[in-house]
Amino acid sequence: MDSMIMMPLGDVFMSEFGINPSQFSLLVSAYAIGAFLSCLAGAVYVDRFDRKRALSILYAGFALGTLACALATNYYALLSIRFITGLFGGVLSALVLSVVADTFTFERRGRAMGILMGAFSAASALGVPVGLYLADHFIWQAPFLFIGGFGLCLLALILVKFPTMRGHLEEGLPEKNFVSTFSSVLKDRNQVNALLAGIALVLGHFLIIPFIAPYMMRNVGFDTNALTAMYFVGGLVTVFTSPLIGRLTDRFGVMRVMSGFLFLSFIPVVAITNMPPIGVTLALLFTTAFFVTGTGRMIPPQTLISAAVGPETRGSFMSLKGALQQLAIALSAAIGGVIVVFDEQEKLLNYEWVGYLSIVVCLLALWLVSRLKVAEGN
After folding, report:
1. Closest CA to 228 of 28, 70, 9, 80
2. Cα–Cα distance for residue pair 268/122, rounded to 1 Å
3. What is the reported pLDDT for 256?
4. Which residues in the chain belong to E strands, given as ranges?
5. DSSP 199-212
6. Which of 121, 112, 35 lies closest to 321, judged by CA?
7. By C-alpha distance, which of 151, 206, 197 is closest to 2?
8. Beta bridge partner(s), residue 341
């Protein structure tokens, strides 16, 4: 919810702080850069701790960082706080994926990943519209106060209900440093391919996401209510489709399900990035299709990528994967910020080229995923 809220508020921040698309893309990238750096550290240290202890510490910093965003008085202050929040949020995401992979066998992991992606969609369906509503009817700081406060409530729930997870420590604390961690990954072609696939998947997906909201408002003619409906409808539909896609992955295999949704996703990608001013209902059909197919092309490969390494080093691998994917998010926002520009009427130009580039990168991801194998212990 926290990482998503910046993107639909893009037009708000560009107007509030008087910034251009390139500066807004840096706001999105700041969180990702912080997450990248913390995931590099997590690749060495995350497997040294009980999963619950690590989750609690990281979630506390993440929630407090989100609250602090509401205290930013200018663009540079918000930029700095987003970077700090990313330091906690990056490792947190990798840790959650490690918990799921540790808990479920590979044969049942697709369904589990589908539920996890469904939870992300629920955050979009509920959190993003609420955030837009709060920003539109009160002040732009309101979404950060809401998410941060809600996050502290969830932290209390984690401390009380989340079980201790020390199974990965049964053979003692891993003796690792940066050199040994990265060298062990680079020596394993399967892990290298898994990391490259993860980068390509995220880069292809996030290339068009940062500018969807500004494009819909400035070029297509959406108002705030239509933008809220876009995230609510798209997120709500994927809440139901994500678990179904997970079950399809377990039944028919990663490559079949991924290929089908990947090629289907190109239809809404091209439609959205070339969309002229049209009716809201027709536009929502394409944006909802992008939500569903975009999630559909992510769930199957994530299941296989999590199985590219054994459980004893999965936390480190997922942290390294998270670092590289956060770097891909930052890169995607930066690339979009360079390609997309304002015209004289402050409408966005060149968005269609971002869509075409997204398709090329997604095809590369498909090829990389096809080369992956399931490691022992899964």
Report:
1. 9
2. 21
3. 92
4. 341-342, 348-349
5. HHHHHHHHTSGGGH
6. 35
7. 151
8. 349
Q: Distance (Å, rounded) from C-alpha 215 to C-alpha 209?
A: 10
8 Å CB contact between 311 and 168: yes
Tell me how far apart the alpha carbons of residues 53 and 37 are, in angstroms, rounded to a whole number. 20
**pTM (predicted TM-score):** 0.71
Q: Left, alpha or beta for 172 (phi > 0: left; psi -120 to 50: alpha)? A: left
Domain 2-162+181-369 belongs to what architecture?
Up-down Bundle (1.20)
Could you identify the residue written with the tokens 């494009």?
215
Over the chain (378 residues), the average pLDDT of each successive run of 10 is 70 78 78 80 68 82 89 87 86 75 70 72 68 77 86 87 64 58 75 88 87 87 84 83 85 90 95 92 93 88 79 69 77 83 80 94 93 72
CA distance 85 to 32: 9
Query: Residue written as tokens 């998503």?
Result: 4
Q: At what angle do helices 254-273 and 224-252 cross, to 10 degrees?
A: 160
Of the candidates 267, 270, 273, which has an alpha carbon nearest to the alpha carbon of residue 219?
273
Kindly list the distances between the CA atom of residue 240 and the CA atoms of 178, 181, 296, 328, in Å, as whole numbers in the listed order: 40, 38, 12, 28
Q: How many whole angstroms separate alpha carbon 336 and alpha carbon 340?
A: 6
Q: Are 226 and 26 in contact (CB under 8 A)?
A: no
* DSSP β-bridge partners for residue 342: 348
Q: How far is CA 153 from CA 127, 149, 158, in A?
A: 15, 7, 9
> Helix, strand or coil for residue 368?
helix
N-terminal to C-terminal alpha carbon distance within the chain: 30
Cα separation, 344 vs 315, whole angstroms: 49
The Cα–Cα gap between 108 and 105 comes to 5
Query: Given the structure tokens 């912080």, which residue do they identify?
Result: 34
Q: Rounded to 5 degrees, what angle do the CA atoms 204, 125, 333 make?
A: 30
Report the C-alpha dihedral over residues 216, 218, 219, 224, rounded to 10 degrees.
40
β-strand partners of 349: 341
Instruction: Give the Cα separation of 329 and 88 in Å (integer).
Output: 16
Instruction: Name the residue with tokens 């540790």.
Output: 102
The candidate with the shortest Cα–Cα distance to 362, out of 128, 140, 202, 135, is 202
User: Where are the chain's structural domains?
Assistant: 2-162+181-369
Note the pLDDT of residue 190. Answer: 85
